[in-house]
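At this stage, I put together a protein sequence along with its fold in token form, as given directly below:
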Amino acid sequence: MRRPRTSRVIDSLAPSRLAKQIIVLQTLYYLTAAVLLIFTCLVSGTAFSLDLLFSWKTIRIDTTIGWTICLVWLLNNVFNVLYLTLFVGRSKLVWDFVLTIHGLNLLFTTLYSHHVPASLVWWVFQLVSIGAMVMLGIWTSRWRELRVMYFSSPATSMSRSAERISPSIDAESYEMVDREALYDSRDDVTTPSSSGNNHLK
């Protein structure tokens, strides 16, 4: 038996659930970026370092490596949109989670570099990243919400099909009962007449 929608909404807004979702999404944010950066370093033949993951100085557009790292982070955003859709799945919460992810990224970057990011390119890139994740996240979350709304579970569809079939079965049984009653009434009518004819004979 499915729970009411209001209870599911309240559960999704519980502080403990939100905290777990933030931890999971932030971990996947850095884990996916680390895997992509390690793969890029192996292909390009460069050494991997935590600066690629946490330093704001690596986001630059004056070198080929800088452009490559920017593309890797954009690809990381695509994966994180999928994570948002899977673990959150609510379009109204996309803004909150995206801003939280980038806010924590700003905090970790500042702590790692011991300085607030001073690069305009880094800030512009973060705004682009936020806008892309919000638009894609809202679109995919709404698609999931509509899919859940219009495509019910197999048990629900079976019960609906059973409800559609049962009225026809009741109608057929009702017709059979009426026919039997009609035949019985005809027999009752014809029986006295036949007995009367026999008596006259």
Summary: The CA atoms of residues 51 and 58 lie 7 Å apart. The mean pLDDT is 78. The radius of gyration is 34 Å. The chain is about 80% helix and 0% strand.
